[in-house]
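User: structure tokens for this one?
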Amino acid sequence: MAEVVVCPETFSFVLFDAAHIAALVGDLADRAGVPAGEQVRIEVEERSPLGRTRLASLDPITIAVEGGAFEDAKHPRHLSEQNVTSVVGRLLLRALDRRDPAFGRPPEDADLTLPQYVAWDVYSVARCARMGYPVQKERRRYHFRIRHGFTDIADRTFERLWTAERLTWEDLAEASDEALAAAPGGPSGPERPSRPGARNRSKGPVAPAG
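Assistant:
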């Protein structure tokens, strides 16, 4: 099993348990293929009720989240196991993609376009679903449409990304471009920076948890 380090070790502002988070992430890391003994760090800014998340490092894999990203929306200050596995799974798979030479050389997260970011999320969340974790496919489909247009081509592209077993960065970028080209108004048509998922270069994108 991967060595999971959760910071802080003890939470004061939220009712999270670091050992429980570590157990969830350890199981997820095993299923995702993180080598045994490798360290995975989860850094939680518990004072923030917001939900921003980012992949902070590849070596060791470090995922930084604001407290709201792990919080149960129906039980404030309490941990949501589904949010933990969804957020960490998506970013953990992104880290493994980046470390895989066969995947290619994607831009840094801050340099991804919003459509590219969302397309990569679709591919990652679908793999979480195949590992047995609960996800919100229709919510992901909606966010894909927001960024790529409400068209039949966008829907077919979404399904292609969702069902794909192994993609490269070139595959993802081309799929995103193809859907955008069919959007009303062309590639810039569906861009709506004020919607959920808008980037903040200093903090990273805000992404749906499911």
